[in-house]
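Hi R.,

Quick one: here's the TonB C-terminal domain-containing protein sequence you asked about.
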Amino acid sequence: MTKNILTLMLVALFAISCGSSESSDEDSDDMINEDVPMETMPDPPMTEEPLSEPHTEEDVDPMESANADGSVANVGDPQLVNKEDSDYYTNEDGMVIHNVMDIKPTYMGGEEEMDKWIAKNITYPSSARRDNVEGTMVVSFIIDKEGNIVNPVIESGPENEALREEAKRVISEMPKWQAGMKNGDPVNAKYKLPITFKLQ
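And here's the predicted structure, written out as tokens:
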């Protein structure tokens, strides 16, 4: 009798526990199926990257060169000056100038290096720029036996004193040349060089 009662109690407890489990599952399903509005998380603030400002001419450092003032000076080819119809002559300063040589004078490094040196060291006079003076100065000069530049003279060009003085100055300050040679000896020679000043 007691054994039967215990058995019935166990069966009843089992049924109760199963019922509660099913109800909890149904409750959980109901919670899932209910249309509960989800809380929307606010979007993170948009951080716009600062746009780089376009470069202007003021942002760019002016190029350090002989043309920084907006002017140019073009150098032509040096030319031997044959003043007399002879192999040589004596000028007013008593220098013997040779027209005919075995080896002509040359700038150390060649004409390209000479052009670079002049372009780097020449200056367009401010007064000439202000008055819009342009033109080609032809400068004659003597290359003596030691390769020095002697007696630069303006042969032709614009009648602007500042421009003429600048052309003479840059020629007179050129580094030494390799002197011309005649019969194995260095000799004096006369050359001319055109320098064109042009505004941009």
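Confidence is low (pLDDT under 50) at residues 28-39, 49-66.

Cheers,
M.
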